[in-house]
Design brief:
186 residues, alpha+beta, minor pseudopilin epsh fold, five-stranded antiparallel beta sheet, four-stranded antiparallel beta sheet, 1 helix, elongated, Pilin-like, cell inner membrane
Length: 186
């Protein structure tokens, strides 16, 4: 009898043990990387929300100049109605993450120009009153204002000033975005 008959035919591929070892290694890597991906997503949400608010404030100021009318930026509820100071929106949030709207005032009536919807994952604290931009130079009624934007529920991976953004608005109405909390030195 030949020895060839006793040998199994050679096949390419991996054994079950090798496959399970690779799957286990991939699972460990995925578990270790998940907090980084979650933190990255949260930072993106904070950055996007901060840029959206800066854009809205710049738009409101320019519309006050262009229209020669008062333009108001206010916190809104789901029906896009302005909320009173410290009034919570539908899910109990009392900050600007409820969403906001830009309204032009003409002859005592308000018309909606732009609205930003709710994003509950990001906290936007600071000014609790409506912001009113006035012609002819687009000044903001009131004094220097600021908004602090941060993750609503910070985790160990998203703590600290590098996860926060600050928007400062001078009396002239121009917003400025900086990295870090509003109380931090910049």
């Amino acid at each position: 009898m030949k020895n060839d008959a006793l040998c199994w035919p050679s096949r390419g591929g991996f054994t079950l043990v090798e496959t399970l070892a690779v799957v286990a290694l991939l699972a460990v890597i995925a578990v270790m990387a998940t907090p980084s991906f979650v933190a990255w997503h949260v930072r993106d949400q904070v950055d996007a929300r901060a840029r959206a608010l800066v854009s809205t404030l710049a738009y409101a100021r320019s519309e006050a100049l262009r229209r020669g009318a008062r333009v108001i930026v206010c916190r809104i509820d789901a029906a896009r109605a302005c909320l009173a100071t410290a009034q919570p929106c539908g899910d109990g949030i009392t900050d600007w993450s409820c969403g906001w709207a830009v309204l032009a005032e003409r002859g005592g009536t308000l018309s909606l120009l732009r609205a930003q919807p709710l994003l509950a994952a990001v906290s936007i604290s600071g000014v609790q009153t409506n912001l009113t931009f006035t012609p002819p130079a687009g000044q903001l009624i009131g004094t220097f204002r600021s908004f602090d934007i941060a993750p609503r529920t910070p985790t160990k991976a998203t703590q600290g000033d590098k996860w926060r953004r600050c928007i400062r608005i001078a009396a002239g109405g121009r917003p400025r975005l900086t990295e870090g909390a509003c109380g931090a030195a910049s």
